[in-house]
Amino acid sequence: LDLAIATHRLQEARLQAGRAAVQVRPSFGAGARTLQDISATDTYFHASIDMVWELGLFGAGESTRAAADAEAEASQSDRQGVRVAVVADVVRNYLDLQAARRQLDLLDRMAVLDARSLELAQVRQRTRTGAADDVAQASAQAAQTRAARAAPQEAAARAAQALSVVLGRVAPDPAWTAPGPGEPLALAPFAFSALPADLLRTRPDVQAAEAGMRKAAAGVGLARSELYPRIAITGSLLYAYNITQNRRLVSDNVPAIGPVIDIPLFDWGRRRMQVDAQQQAFEAAVAAHERTVRTAVAEAEGALAALAAQQARASALADAAAAWNGRSAAAGTRVRLGLASAYDALAPQRALLQLQQDEATAQDAQALAFIALYKALGGAPLPPAQDAAARPEAP
Known about the structure:
The protein is of the alpha+beta class. It has helices spanning 2-21, 60-126, 132-148, 150-166, 204-225, 268-336, 342-376, 384-390; strands at residues 27-36, 43-54, 230-242, 247-248, 255-262.
């Protein structure tokens, strides 16, 4: 819906720009009216065809068209900004939804281990091979696992509702929150050595700031044109009929054509102040553009740093998960060989699930950091060489 609103506003701005382009072209009109002469003795019926051509000299025409074009470009930038925001929101909410589903799946697997641990602890207590404290600890751990489900359940519901709103749906799709492990959405490994600064020019706010400068410059030109005479050419073809005497005039079909010149005299000072005011508006637009560019650079640098940090975190947790996977496999081997009990093998398995949960959280954070970079660059496409290097082999 935001995209539809922005599209309608863009169409409105384009139509207004087209309307401004024809203001310096001849316009024709027709009219009819009745009026009396100065002595109020006769009543006349007048019908005329009129023409007015505002020449738009001294930069008035160019400034008017430039201001309208800049307004249309600003609307185009706003629409692009909405598009980038919609794409980012859809992906972010979808990632949040899948992340919550993965967390719930891992918690369910932990709950199975906790139930098995509680069962074995009770057996060990009955056979007097374990302490009563182990039963209490296993029971508390199982309760904590059940309580931990509340956060991802709430996150999944919120993400589904947010995704439904962004997509313009009445209600979320039930399949979005169906039980299951969710889709693994980890990014393929990639790195940026540097990004061209020109990518920031594709940011909608930077483009809108540039359009604002052009509009302000057009305002200065239009104000300066008002310091000079305004020249227009007018013409008319009049038909007159004397209603009182019921006869036509003798010269009712004589056309009239000539210039109209408006020379500023006593209000020249007011017009000069308008030029100065527009010049200050232009300086403000230049400063706003510089501020926007500096903000864009800071956001892009911050997004790159966050993405690099999340990549390092995800890589480290992946290495730790691999190590714990080997340790869990070794514990299972000892159980099969009779060198350890099944109760002793549950702790490494649960630790591995906890580490997998942390790894999934890191992968989600890495994907969200990539979305932040996408927004910081205004949805700009990557350069061809880097795009090819960053594209994953898998679908």
